[in-house]
Amino acid sequence: MTGQPKLPKDPYNLIITGVGGQGNVLASRMVGDMLARMGLFVTIGETFGASQRGGSVMSHLRVSTQSSLSPQIPKGRAHMVVALEPTEAIRVLNTYGNPEVKVLCNTRPIHSIGVICGEQNYPSLEAMKDWIDELTAQSWFLDTTAAAIKLGNPILGNTVCVGALAATGELPLNRDVFRAVVSEKMSAEKVALNLSAYDMGGSLVRN
Question: Cys staple from 111: which of 86, 115, 180, 207, with CB 3.0 to 4.6 Å?
Answer without folding.
Answer: 115
